[in-house]
Design a protein that fits this description.
Elements (H helix, E strand, L loop, with lengths): L2 H26 L2 H10 L5 H30 L7 H33 L18 H23 L4 H5 L2
Helix pairs in contact: 2-3, 3-4
């Protein structure tokens, strides 16, 4: 295989790995528990943690809204187009309804948070403190061992650094 193809394959695999890991993270993590853990255990300011919480919580909502827009357009007789240009045209058709819906949702959320006094105090308390169960501790330990093993194999020369650091 040529050098250009090898670099392209390595880059594509990196992108795929990041997307897959992000998808697993978003689908398997409760955003509320993550926000609480960020505040209580990592000592991140609760305004930043809640911004992250809202961003994670809104992803499934946007997916649902896309389904609603798609079905509304199908009822109106708009046919889904195939190919790359069709997807770009669909994205253009979805952009305005998604933007309007997101602005409405953000406005409602801001009013709700202000009415509840969000940001009025420098510290925040929580009813439930998060805790890490035994299975989560085992998973974290296994991931730590995998990372240490990977960098050890890289340092020893078992894994060629070209595939790791290729542009």
């Amino acid at each position: 295989m040529s050098r250009a193809r090898t670099i392209a394959l390595a880059s594509a695999l990196r992108i795929y790995t990041i997307i897959l890991a992000s998808l697993v993270f978003v689908r398997s993590t409760d955003p509320r528990e993550l926000a609480i853990a960020l505040v209580t255990q990592m000592k991140i300011p609760y305004r930043i943690a809640y911004a992250f919480f809202i961003a994670l919580r809104i992803i499934p909502t946007i997916e649902e809204e896309i389904k609603i827009i798609r079905s509304a357009q199908a009822v109106r007789g708009v046919v889904r187009q195939r190919g790359m240009t069709g997807r770009i045209r669909e994205a253009k058709r979805y952009a305005m309804p998604l933007l309007v819906g997101a602005l409405r949702r953000a406005s409602t959320m801001v009013m709700s948070m202000e009415a509840r006094g969000f940001g009025a105090y420098p510290q925040r308390t929580f009813v439930e403190a998060p805790h890490m169960g035994f299975g989560a501790q085992v998973a974290c330990g296994a991931m730590l061992l995998a990372v240490v093993g990977w960098y050890t194999a890289l340092a020893v020369g078992v894994v060629h650094s070209f595939y790791v650091f290729a542009p």
